[in-house]
Fold these 2 entries.
Entry 1:
Amino acid sequence: MKVYPSLIEDQQIFNDLIKDIRKTPVVAIDTEFHCEKRYWPDLLLIQLAADGIGPVAVDPLAVKDLTPLAGLFADEKVVKVLHSARNDLVILFNDIPDFSVKNLFDSQIAAAFLGYGEQISLVNLVHSVSGVKSRKKYSMSDWSTRPLADGQLEYALDDVRHLVEVYDSLSADLKRKKRTHWFEGESESLLDPSTYAISLERLFGKARSAGKVKKSNFPLLWMLVNWREDVAREMNRPRFYVARDHLLCRLALLAPKKAETIRSLRGLPGGFVDKYGEAVVEQVNKCMEDPPKDVPRLVLPRHDWGYAARKDILRIFLKMKSKSLDLAPALLLPKEGFESILEDPPKSLDQFMGREDLTRWRKEALGSDLVDLLTGKLALSLKKGNSLRFIKVK
């Protein structure tokens, strides 16, 4: 294999690197980026390591054409190993045209299925698997500065230096514990481009929950959410630079006809009225003249008399089930699934297995025990020594 420099700033060398990596079975990949003051994160470094290659870093500020990287990610023959892959992939999906992902291995997700906890850091995982302690000195570096300091570069390369070894260990453990298909089921969403698209409906639901907005105010709130998104995208600044969710709720309730009326709101960011006052009034007028027809429908909680009891018993069940499976409760049943089951508990195993709001592996793991619990066939019992257990009801 060709020997590559630790920092690649030449397009042809980068192209050759990707060609060589695609001849290997596994590649470790990581990125460095800045997102604190931007709408879209800025990609500032790409690190790669494979058998006999690297670790190397690619400078995307110098290497302008990253399409060869798209070819690598789409190559089904090469396993792409990333840690907490969603953070890296959202940038690559945005920055590289026609980007897609095949044969992905997220080491953080794999570790969660092996008892390492739901969100173990890469540093701690590498230490647990290989015994190597990575350096932390440059974790808060400014990756946009050039030239990069030698220490910065070595810190970045550490993120992929041992990742293939970690992959070998975790993939073997998943097979040994017969959890590979669970891991693959949890990883499916990472291959879907829609996972990385901005959901205005989700942002609307999040904004609504930040304040006491009545249903009659939903149309204006929806317009304000869309307005904020357009402004933030055009400015390339985070949404909160324009307006936080709670402010959008207050504006939706106030529905100001004049910009000066906005000044009556408490806790108003300095300069907001001068910057955006007229634009907000314009949204109010548009909403009054022609209310939007596409306001998302929000299913608000309607708690029945058994909701609180189900919530308490389900939490205990999840803690005990998670302990027996050596999984984090939030991995076994995330918040959305937890609330969905509370609102609409399954009445039979067939009904539960037919739900579309849970992945197949979760339905397999929870299965008949959860259904029996919610249909009164499984009871909570207190043993001697004050330990809890679930027992079948005859």
Note: Residues 307-325 form the longest helix (19 residues).
Entry 2:
Amino acid sequence: MPAYVIVGASLAGAKAAETLREEGFDGDIVLIGAEPERPYERPPLSKGYLLGNDARDSVFVHEAGWYDEHDVQLRLGTTVTAIDRAAHQLRLADGGTVDYAKLLITTGASPRRLPVPGADGEGVLYLRTLGDSETLGAAFRGGGQVVIAGAGWIGLETAAAARHFGCDVTVVEPEPCPLYRAVGPEIGGVFEALHRSHGVTFRFGEGVSELRGAHTVVTSAGEELAADTVLIAIGAVPNTGLAADAGLRVDNGIAVDETLCSSDPDIFAAGDVANAFNSLLGRSIRVEHWGNALAGGPVAARAMLGKQATYDWVPYFFSDQYDLGMEAAGLPEPGRYDQVVVRGDKDALEFIAFWLSDGAVVAGMNVNVWDVNDDIQALIRSGAQLDVGRLTDPGVPLTEV
């Protein structure tokens, strides 16, 4: 019988393989990855591993022997070039083929390239892989001037790491504040103040218009910034080429339903590459968060087996910057909330922010306040209109709001 094949040796792919075995599947499983490393988790690449706090072995999803022990054929350094849907077969770059009964695509995303002269020049860095993190860490340890294009999560986390190593850091961002499209100005301003207090320089309302070698960044305002290290952190693009070439429906990712099934009933997608219908939110979302891969892989695996599986995950994200640790639940997207309220002390960086729509919580972020994220997710799931006074009162347990 043809194998259940997973293309993308990622967190989502590895958790899907694990779930297939846990659910009792005893057929062949083939996990194919283009990178030379076995599946690993990406958050440490801009956090603990980049800072040197996490050991290299700690980033991997499973111990090296897990795949053999669970009879999962792990094929690393292998590129899939085409999906032949009619033949249920994958074509490989080395000329080989792999037959599949069911296929899961977990190919993730790639850093968005900056479309300006010099952006792909030698010495201009992007962060996505384990090797990228090691290169960036070595550059930061060298000190000097660091210029980062982009004040999103990766931009801010790497800025914090660069300051940890004593670099001078300038962040160039076209929006008016950090995380403008991720959390809005109300909370983006908190992160701006945090980074400024640690010596980061921001240039808001400016983009990067040119890179002259790896040592001069020209902004859209015509300013020339000297740089020893340049990092481009302006988001990611889903790796949908295989799916599109195979005729699957693609729309800002591989379009999949609430079971993570694509427009082909034998092909599924999970993780960063999937634009999935979230039955809780009632709309399709494509999320590039660790939690999405962690949740999506098992859902897809169960659906591949014909078992009950529904993608109703509350989007979850976490970040560590300097002495700020936070967790976020939900998606505070522009236009999907009408009020932001805070419980706790925002100035002291110990608070919970809530994004509301018609009095109901659509997203929440706990900053240096712990063991409350499950309660925040429960509020989001409830969809209930809440008393804002009780919601923002630290004396009222979130379970009693």
Note: DSSP finds twelve helices and 25 strands in the chain.
